[in-house]
Amino acid sequence: MTTTRERWSALMIRALELAEQGRYGTSPNPMVGAVVLDSSGNVVGEGAHRRCGGEHAEVAALTVAGPRAVGGTLVVTLEPCAHHGRTAPCVDAVLAAGIRRVVIGTLDPNPLVNGAGAAKLRAAGVEVVEGIEADRCAELNYKFFHFMRHSVPYVTLKMAMTLDGKLAARGGRSRWITSEAARREGYALREEFDAVLVGVGTVLADDPRLTRHLGLNPNPALLRVVLDSHLRVSPTAMLLENRPEDVVVFCLDEAPAAARAALEGAGARVVSVGDDGQGRCDLRQVLRWLGGAGVSSLLVEGGGEVHWSFLKEGLAQRLHVFLAPLVLGGREATPAVGGAGFASPQEGVRLAVREVRRVAEDIVIVAEVGGV
Ligand SMILES: NC(=O)c1ccc[n+]([C@@H]2O[C@H](COP(=O)([O-])OP(=O)(O)OC[C@H]3O[C@@H](n4cnc5c(N)ncnc54)[C@H](OP(=O)(O)O)[C@@H]3O)[C@@H](O)[C@H]2O)c1
Q1: Lower CB count within 10 Å: N or C terminus of the chain?
Q2: pTM for the full predicted model
């Protein structure tokens, strides 16, 4: 016989599956899934938040349930909201539907909610059960949780490297180190993040577009960011060919005015930030600017110098590495992480490995910075 808590867990896992429907569409909102039970405990409605501005999961599930929700239970991965955002408060919809019990995965770290939804439900006489599958529910929205707590984007460094740790061959050519399947996974990641960032070295070497091309995210707008202290990016770079208004180039105050005017003329936004002490863009200011622009997650796509800066400054939370069974060698070939390097293993950045798997002939390693 299963206990009530086990039943809630099983239903929460189903709600987590439903939430996956929003993986590419909800940002900067969280992914949420919900299941509605009638007063006898039968599942009568399921729903997910699929895209930002769209119906919330609770409302979607309650709509399916209709009058069968009266006296029933709502199981939801994230605390229902109690404030007016892009849609009306979900708590009101829950109360109007006649729900008697709400089972919540995690509280919403959004300062506008954070316990207020649960409190409003309790005040209205609804039984609230919290913390069912809490870790999995928090992990589902790790980028959103980080943004709500810190007001700067969650940063993942994505790198495709050889077994000997190179991002490119001697001379700078990097197409292609990994298999097509690995590159596809890399492009899918791009659809999950609000913005991508590269250093000017990568723009000069590869002339990338950095666009989304898999069509997974219904929102075509992806903010593309370049760190370019002295504005060496050409106004004819491929990056600026389509949707140049989605390109932000960060530079220092002393960057040449003519280069700024040329990039702005091509449609890009040019933003000057302070010096990081090494004559380069101050990453903390860059992240604060992006956070202020509503960017909740940032995928850093190279190159080695930029990876080093994020890691050295403690500003990256995760690494998503594609490791190819290929050796390029070369003391001058771009390393996955460049910079001056640390002086001892003790000073290095320790990672907690979350995932190791194969994709075609390559190996994927996902690791968190400063984990266990
Ligand atoms: N395999 C892969 O996944 C992959 C991905 C990307 C790139 N790549 C390869 O990597 C190579 C380029 O890498 P790279 O290391 O030479 O260059 P990079 O990291 O792309 O760009 C570094 C440059 O960015 C500018 N920058 C501005 N602010 C910075 C900051 N705070 N920290 C670091 N850099 C900052 C600096 O130039 P200024 O001082 O002029 O601003 C710096 O030299 C190319 O060969 C490319 O093909 C491979």
Answers
A1: N
A2: 0.95
